[in-house]
Amino acid sequence: MQKLLKTIALLLVITTVVFAAGCAGQSKENATEGAVEEVTEESVSAENGSDAVFRSSDGEMPTYVVGTEAQFPPFEIVDSKGKVIGFDVDLMNAIAEDQGFKVEYLDQDFAGLIPALQTGNVDIIASGMTITEEREEEVDFSEPYINAGLALAVLTGNEDIQSVDDLKGKTVSVQTGSTGFLKAEELQKAGIIAEIKDFPHVNEAIEELKIGGADVMINDLPVTDAFIAAQPGVIKIVGEPLNSEDYGFAVRTGNTELLTKINAGLENVKASGKYDELLADLPNYMEE
Ligand code: GLN
User: For the whole model, what pTM was predicted?
Assistant: First the structure.
């Protein structure tokens, strides 16, 4: 009997130990599972960490001020609600979205854009600005984002001027500080153009043509085209484009961090097909 009791007691002990061990095993498993879950959660937030933190709170997302002269359709123009729209704006917005930064647009005269960038009033110029060697000395340009060129425009009734060969002794209207202005200076120095009249905005250079204050205007071809589309039958483009120019976004000299973002964003926006979409929309900006 005593032997039986001893056996039962031993069995109880063993059962208890095995049960305890089982429980221990299980709780260890639970603990491990818990730990695994925790690690997984941690690594998820770590992986998306920079992104999530970046996007969740506006305070964390840098905002850059973009300087633009918004009277230069289809690249930048103010719509009826006072909002700056256009190809440059949509492209810059797409780049900003891709790179996780925000942008605010500051509309100002073209000739003041580079000084505004240099003094820190704006961080980026998106204003149909041609990449030129002279400007490269003052700012850093992104990769080119579109190609344009200068063209001559005259009143529709003018049969006198067909090309640059007909500019001898003529008065030219241009936008102040533009590459059209530089081309006019070049033609004046060469003894071809007699007088240059420059205005802060392209529409004022067009007005000068209309009132007979200038014989011809030199301006970026797609922009003159956009003005013609908005008001047909007043002026026309004559001759071949005078040159080929590339537009770039500009940042302060040495701001490689921002320039790298803009170039990476531009590449991604091109690769995704978004750029082509915007390009297809180019003729529509004047009608909005
Ligand atoms: N592309 C021309 C330039 O860079 C004109 C630009 C503009 O007027 N917005 O000078």
Answer: 0.80
